[in-house]
Design goal:
InterPro entries: LRR_dom_sf (IPR032675). By secondary structure, the protein is α/β, with parallel strands linked by helices.
Length: 429
């Protein structure tokens, strides 16, 4: 039985050896800076596991003045116990913090005590990169945090599940030195958010990633943000929703919001990435167009439309126009990745590739020739035969699709990590 394994001597002996090895390592490393990654078991079911993990981590905490990076994944009460004595003086060199917790049933008193421990990181003088992958943890930092803390960050990764969007935007407005931001938004946006007029300008942000249940969950942020230096924009979603192009909701569609965003930000975007976690059928969702967005980003070099049936004849024909020069859509586009769910014709695709893959007289062209095109298709044999003359520049892959409602085998949240069912300690210098 699993319970028996946790009470036998071999298990406790292993924990003891891990702890003694950790102690020896920390003593041998002397004054070197430490990057700590510490993961404990997924459920606080066996007290021995939590106790042994705590004892090992207490050794690591005694060397917190040497911490440069700290990454933790553990039950929330465990994290509170491990970090309750952390102060500004004990983490003078800490630059990176990434904290996740295992979901548990917590009463309010335990939750409040637990999140209080994390607020000490707001005093870390060198902290530049912060990742909090749960709304409770994010909320702990939102409450009473000084403007100077947000202003020192260059990387911010948060989950805002259960948070008020306006409160989070109120903190984000102070992150004036951010260069990278990743936002998990798993709650459906309320109607009042769509009507607010808060504008947040982040002058140095270059990379922005949204991880959400549906693509339209990112709309409140897209409507509020102004990012004049943005180069890389990604959307990772667990489903595809009609708000992308539903004509009856065009005023709140993602396409409409993105068009306004690009028009206002005037950013030099080079990479645009869409991905859903469902394979789709064209019978399940409407075909929509990205044309209003693409006309706003002439600097685009890479476009990925993973599992989203956006590529259709109108867009292919627009990309085929190369004269006059002012009419070229995405003139710097060199890499294109999209699915084929029979939403466009062979002729439109062939015409597009014949023009945009052209390499002769490169210096005289008004556009950059495509270097790579990847097509994931439900009709691979027909496309391979049609595109055989385009050599290695076009890669055709078979695509297995499912109707909406059936998930793929990999059903995890974006950017989640595989965590082994044991306690691991890793340090490097």
């Amino acid at each position: 039985m699993p319970e028996a394994a946790y009470t036998c001597d071999p298990y406790l002996s292993l924990c003891h050896r891990i702890r003694e090895g950790t102690r020896a390592f920390l003593e041998r490393s002397q004054f070197k800076l430490l990057s700590i990654s510490f993961y404990t078991r997924t459920i606080n079911k066996h007290q021995d596991d939590v106790t042994e993990a705590m004892r090992t981590f207490e050794l690591i905490c005694s060397h917190s003045k040497r911490w440069k990076s700290l990454k933790l994944l553990a039950p929330l009460p465990w994290l509170w116990g491990a970090l309750r004595n952390t102060t500004e003086e004990s983490i003078p060199l800490l630059e990176t913090v990434q904290i996740s917790h295992i979901r548990m049933t917590l009463d309010d008193s335990v939750s409040e005590s637990a999140v209080a421990a994390f607020r000490s990181f707001r005093s870390a003088p060198r902290l530049r990169q912060l990742s909090l992958e749960h709304g409770i943890l994010t909320n702990a930092f939102l409450q009473g945090t000084e403007t100077s803390f947000w202003n020192q960050l260059t990387y911010l990764g948060v989950s805002e599940a259960g948070l008020h969007d306006l409160i989070f935007l109120g903190a984000l407005v102070h992150c004036q030195n951010l260069t990278t931001c990743k936002i998990q938004c798993f709650d459906r946006y309320p109607d009042y958010v769509l009507g607010h007029d808060r504008i947040v300008t982040l002058p140095h942000l270059e990379e922005l990633t949204f991880s959400c249940l549906a693509l339209d969950d990112a709309i409140p942020y897209i409507r509020s943000l102004r990012l004049p230096k943005l180069r890389d924009l990604s959307f990772l979603a667990s489903s595809y929703v009609c708000y992308l192009g539903d004509s009856e909701t065009a005023d709140i569609s993602l396409v409409s919001s993105l068009s306004d965003f690009f028009s206002e930000s005037l950013c030099p975007l080079e990479k645009l990435y869409f991905e859903t976690r469902f394979y789709l059928s064209t019978e399940s969702v409407p075909i929509v167009t990205l044309l209003p967005c693409l006309y706003q980003i002439p600097t685009l070099r890479e476009l990925t439309l993973a599992d989203i049936p956006i590529m259709e004849d109108e867009l292919l024909r627009a990309l085929t126009v190369v004269s006059p020069t002012s009419g070229v859509l995405c003139p710097k586009l060199t890499c294109l990745h999209f699915p084929d769910l029979c939403s466009f014709s062979y002729q439109a695709l062939q015409d597009f590739l014949s023009v945009r893959l052209r390499r002769s007289c490169h210096n005289s062209l008004s556009f950059a020739p495509l270097e790579q095109v990847v097509i994931e298709t439900v009709r691979p044999n027909g496309l391979r035969s049609l595109l055989s003359s385009f050599d290695n520049a076009v890669l055709v892959k078979g695509l297995n699709y499912r109707p909406i409602g059936q998930t793929t085998q990999d059903n995890r949240r974006p950017w989640s990590q595989n965590v082994r069912d044991n306690t691991r300690f890793h340090a490097e210098w």
